Amino acid sequence: MSLNSTCLLNKNFSGCIGRFCTILLLCLLLLPVKSLFASPIDGIVGKISQADYTGYVEDLEDFQTRYYNTQGNLDALEYIQNAFLGFGLNVSYDPFTYNGSTYNNVVATLPGKTHPEQVYIVGAHMDSISDRDDPTNMNAPGADDNASGMAAVLEMAKAMVGYAFDATIKFIGFNLEEKDLVGSKAYADKAKASGEQVRGMLNFDMIAYPGNSGAKNVFLAGDSNLVDAMKGNALKYTKLTTTLSYNNFDDSDQYYFHSSLFPGSTSAFAIEAEPLNNPNYHKTTDSTDTSNYMDFAYATDITRMGVATLADFAGVIPEPSTLFCFLLGGLLLMVGSRGKKL
Ligand SMILES: [Zn+2]
Question: pTM for this one?
């Protein structure tokens, strides 16, 4: 029998109003309690968009080459800078010297609320290479290597800007990775020299070619705490399977941030499980135009795994509205209880 019909039969309207208020109070209480148990990380992961991710990959490959000493490299740096600025982040170029010339990483910063001096980095190399043609002129689209990783960093930045974190997060496009990790080494050296408290670094390099096996498998390597956390988030938020290694691989940008080389830091990277089977690796055909090559759903899942791990390590702070609702619910319950005694 419904509440209304009970009321009409009993004609006890004040009692019904009391019951209605109790139900309303319970609803008000249950909503914030539910949101207390729902992690803000769920919300961040939910903001990752495959369409936007794909758009970033396509835009980056459209520079035709991002080889380190080309106009395409400079244009791509500017594109990444503008994307970060569009999210509302502070952005700066991070200059370093290579063979007597100056080049730049691009760094966007989301300041921490509780421990802004502690820094977590998420990075990918933005330069590209092709050894079949002269990449100085054109033809190094680098869609998988590594527009796919850079797009993940951009998408993570876009998803995280609406949230607050204990620690500072830096989103970095590293340059000259293809010249033997020049940009990331320069950043790590400078950070150590200046005393920057880098607590962790996540790197994404080649994450859009799922391989021939048909398995959506991702290879995770580096310091165990980050590797294990990424595995956990892959299980929780994606359909990915994982292959793990606790070694520090010296062929991508996380290398100089590993605990063994950077005191106080920890690092790991994610890479497609079959990079050595990638038929377009460092070729002019590393492009979204190559059919049956890129799997954007796979790459977007790797991005979701990454952003969940980064948000956890950087200490995402629950939204103030959640706490406000909880306090309001409690207050209303107290008022309701007192009214009942009267
Ligand atoms: Zn690469």
Answer: 0.86
Residues 124, 225 within the same domain: yes
Q: Are residues 112 and 140 in the same domain?
A: yes
Q: Left (φ > 0), alpha (ψ -120 to 50) or beta: where does 180 sit?
A: left
How far, in Å, from the CA of 111 to the mean position of ligand 1?
28
Q: What is the C-alpha separation between 240 and 146, in angstroms, rounded?
A: 20
Q: Is the bond leading into 137 cis (omega within 30 degrees of zero)? A: no
Q: Is the same domain home to 330 and 226?
A: no
C-alpha 44 – ligand 1 centre gap (Å): 26
- Cα(4) to ligand 1 centroid in Å equals 66
| Ligand 1 centroid distance, CA of 148 (Å) | 9
Which of 91, 93, 148, 102 lies closest to 124, judged by CA?
Answer: 148
- Full domain range(s) for residue 119: 40-318
Length of the chain: 342
Instruction: Report the separation in Å between the CA atom of 176 and the middle of ligand 1, taken as the mean of its atom positions.
Output: 10
Q: What is the pLDDT of residues 89-136, one digit of tens each?
A: 999 999 999 999 999 999 999 999 999 999 999 999 999 999 876 887
How far apart are the CA of 336 and the centre of ligand 1, in A?
Answer: 61
**What residues pair up with 84 in beta bridges, in sequence order?**
none
Query: Does one domain contain both 337 and 253?
Result: no
Distance 323 CA to ligand 1 centre (A): 43
What is the per-residue pLDDT across 26-44, written as a single tens digit (0 to 9) for each? 555 555 555 556 789 999 9
Q: Are both 185 and 200 inside the same structural domain?
A: yes
How close is the Cα of 162 to the center of ligand 1, in Å? 29
Distance 341 CA to ligand 1 centre (A): 69
Structure tokens at 49: 């968009």
Considering the domain architecture, whether residues 26 and 49 belong to the same structural domain is answered as no
How far does residue 142's CA lie from ligand 1's centre (Å)? 8
Question: Using one digit for the tens of pLDDT, what is the confidence trace for 258-316?
Answer: 999 999 999 999 999 999 999 999 999 999 999 999 999 999 999 999 999 999 999 99
Tokens of 307: 């952003």
Q: Provide the number of structural domains found in the chain.
A: 2
> The domain spanning residue 201 has which CATH number?
3.40.630.10
pLDDT surpassing 50 at residue 9? no
Q: How far is the CA of 282 from the centre of ligand 1 (A)?
A: 9
